[in-house]
Amino acid sequence: MGTKKGKKSSGLDEVGGYKVLPVQFSGKEAVHYLYFRQHSSNKEDILKPSDRTIFMTNLPADTTERDIRRLFQGMARIARVVFHRVVGHDVIKTAAADARMMGELASAMADAESTKSKKSKNTDDDKLKPVPRSQLLESGSSAHIVLLETGELTNVMSMKAGAITEWPSRDSDSTNPLDYRGVSRYLYEHRAARPPLDLLKAEVDSFMAKFEESQYERDRMLAQQQNVPDADGFVTVVRRGRHTKNTDGAVSVKVLSADDAREAGAKKKDVVFGNMYKFQMRERKNNQLLELRKKFEEDKDRIARMRQARQFRPY
Rounded to 5 degrees, what are φ and ψ at 143? Predict the structure, then answer.
């Protein structure tokens, strides 16, 4: 972390509870101001413990976790950085989900690695590797910076003023895709999104070969399990499909219960005699409508008679 001489003071300036950290980019006279404070929350958060987490805002649009590490180099060690308002995706939810899963999967991954059978080194050579891409932040974005130890938070919060911090620079001849900027970055992403056809074909062929191998292995295992007696000497007969033979070669027969038979007979009778023709359905509906009208007229006459006899009490 480079510095330039300036006016000495006891501590950083504060604005609205935020420490003001002036930074200057290499080769430029303009000063950029970062604002940070200790993270505070009403709820206990394992991902962002308040006793060793810093909330920083007004970050440059191309800020990376490596830039943050270099910015606090020699003063504090960074455990992780959670960026907010990243262009193209929601990093907050992704980082939170990954952090929760890390603890749960750590032991499982360790066991899987120790018991994993050794395969040929060339197994994944033809597989397309994920392309690393640099992220961009929206203007005025912020981040939660989690430090390794609590004491390092005191070092950051007690930073002395009087020197303008130099923002970590990047090598112009770097071959790391995360360092690409400007036209180089867009050319890299354009080519990364359009891999060569021969690599795509090899990837598809490899996937289909593995899929067919797994399907063959599945069918082979099912075939071995058919017609094999269990410990008690029973053979489990598996029905393969409708109107087909069972695994023992016999025709599949399904026995209906008495209730199912009566229900099926009632449905069949109703369909044959009640809904055989459309005119029958129309007649039935008309009869129901006439019955409702007749009942309405009867109720109407009854209410009129009760009113005349002063016996009608609607409430």
Answer: -160, 150
Q: Which two tokens stand for residue 150?
A: 């609590």
Tell me the two tokens of residue 31.
């000063």
Given the structure tokens 């203007």, which residue do they identify? Answer: 139
Helix (H) or strand (E) holding 35: strand 31-38
- State how far the alpha carbon of 282 is from the alpha carbons of 215, 270, 275, 276, 296, in Å: 55, 15, 10, 12, 21
d(CA 60, CA 167): 10
Structural contact between residues 157 and 64, judged by C-beta atoms closer than 8 angstroms: no
Q: Write the DSSP assignment of 259-287 as a string of letters.
A: HHHHHHHHHHHHHHHHSSSHHHHHHHHHH
Check residue 186 and give its pLDDT.
81
Give the residue from 139, 143, 152, 157 showing the smallest Cα distance to 68: 143
Q: For the chain, what are the domain ranges?
A: 3-126+134-171, 196-253, 258-308
| CB atoms near residue 267 (< 10 Å) | 10
H/E stretch holding 81 reads strand 78-83
Neighbouring residues of 166: CB distance < 8 A, sequence distance ≥ 6 = 1, 2, 3, 4, 23, 24, 25, 26
CA distance 100 to 198: 38
152-191 tens-digit pLDDT: 999 899 888 776 778 887 766 667 777 777 787 788 878 8
What residues form DSSP beta bridges with 36? 19, 56
DSSP-assigned letter for residue 250 = S
Given a cut of 70, the residues of the chain with pLDDT beneath it are 1-9, 88-134, 163, 171-174, 227, 233, 235-276, 311-315
Taking the C-alpha atoms of residue 186 and residue 62, their distance in angstroms, rounded to an integer, is 13
